[in-house]
Specification:
15 strands; seven-stranded mixed β-sheet; alpha/beta; six-stranded parallel β-sheet; single chain
Length: 388
């Protein structure tokens, strides 16, 4: 990968520890003869979000291990002003590629990049196309997956109540909510006659959420996610689909805690035979092995996106991660060979995947088959995921 030479002030930054990458088979480029740093900024859950932050950090570490970067530096920030400060610090250390993850710092990224036209930046899920020419972007179309999530949530529910929540500022938020509802509606149309209907929960009584424009949109904080989970579970909602960063982590950690408490209560001698339904989560991010509550996963294929944008990014023999051949010759931007300035991962191009987790498959035997069927019906045009 060709890169413009950078001045060597990198030693002041600590490189992130190498992640376990043994599952990937890569072709390493020639070793670097100079120090080049890959920098990342993520808010508000940072790189412990089991989602875009964690996936992008893993990919940057993969590139570092293959010799694309000599080191990496990452910083979790709390908001816009902190993003600007982090970008300024990273600029002083001559980052070869600076990546900002999530929509929270998109405005600051655009302003900073415009003021530094010779540097190269990448926005991951920035939620906007209004970016300077030196900012590449990677987004994911979550409308069809949200439809499948709605149908799958209804299939998995034991109470008949399912819910979805998005953090404020999350890309495609209104369309995601509508698509989820359409998926629940399709389940009700196609379910067996002897099964009860499913209901898409709306906590309209919440004055704080309503004041912010939607009863299903919350602040992107762990506390907001925990509060939403508690309200929903108290209303008999047993399957939740959170989209966000810190808020989503608040939902899933609360679901795990509740499952632990309920399991302990059901083992008590005085407990009855039938306990309450355990909470379940359809997750947006990495595979759900980190949580017992996760029954299905919507995964943004960050690896495929980066390999589509950067033809010299370390490649894999996994067919799901092999980028298509570029239609035009790559252009050099900021020292990088770039095939695509804007990448949008979809179900159709392999940029977004949705799968049922193994534990869920054992309880609902046709869940995986149902997901596959819905995906093909959407791809063929039989189903409009925003209308059902």
């Amino acid at each position: 990968m060709r890169m413009i030479a950078r001045t060597a002030q990198i030693a002041a930054l600590a490189a992130v520890g190498v992640l376990t990458l043994s599952a990937c088979s890569v072709n390493a480029p020639e070793a670097l003869e100079e120090e080049r740093l890959g920098c990342l900024v993520s808010a508000p859950s940072g790189f412990d979000d089991h989602s875009a932050g964690a996936l992008t950090l893993e990919e940057t570490e993969l590139a570092r291990g293959a010799g694309v970067f000599s080191g990496t530096s990452s910083q979790r920030v709390s908001g816009g002003s902190a993003t600007s400060a982090a970008l300024d610090r990273m600029h002083r250390h001559d980052c070869a590629l600076t990546t900002v993850i999530g929509p929270g710092g998109a405005d600051e990224l655009a302003d900073f990049a415009a003021a530094h036209p010779d540097d190269l930046f990448l926005g991951v899920s920035p939620g906007t196309d209004d970016l300077p020419k030196n900012v590449l972007s990677m987004d994911f179309d979550l409308v069809p997956p949200a439809f499948i999530a709605g149908f799958t949530a209804a299939t998995a529910s034991e109470t008949g109540k399912v819910g979805i929540v998005v953090s404020h500022g999350f890309p495609q938020a209104d369309r995601i909510l509508a698509s989820f509802d359409a998926g629940v509606d399709l389940y009700n149309k196609e379910k067996d006659e002897d099964l009860p209907k499913a209901e898409s929960y709306r906590p309209s009584s919440d004055p704080v959420a309503s004041a912010n424009g939607s009863p299903r949109a919350i602040d992107d904080t762990r506390d907001a996610g925990k509060d939403y989970f508690e309200r929903s579970f108290d209303a008999d909602v047993d399957v939740l689909v959170p989209f966000g960063s810190a808020a989503a982590m608040g939902v899933v950690t609360s679901a795990d805690d509740k499952r632990t408490d309920l399991a302990a209560a059901m083992e008590a001698p005085e407990s009855g035979d039938d306990g309450p339904s355990l909470p379940k989560v359809i997750w947006y991010g990495t595979a759900g092995g980190f949580s017992t509550a996760i029954v299905a996963t919507v995964e943004p294929n960050v690896r495929r996106g980066l390999r589509t944008m950067f033809p010299d990014w370390p490649q894999s023999r996994n067919p799901d991660e092999v980028a298509p051949a570029p239609k035009t010759d790559p252009e050099e931007i900021g020292g990088f060979e770039v095939s695509e300035r804007r990448y949008k991962g979809t179900i159709a191009n392999g940029g977004v995947r949705i799968v049922a987790e193994d534990g869920f498959l054992s309880r609902v035997s046709d869940a995986g088959r149902g997901i596959t069927d819905l995906r093909e019906r959407i791809k063929s045009g039989e189903i409009d995921p925003e209308k059902g």
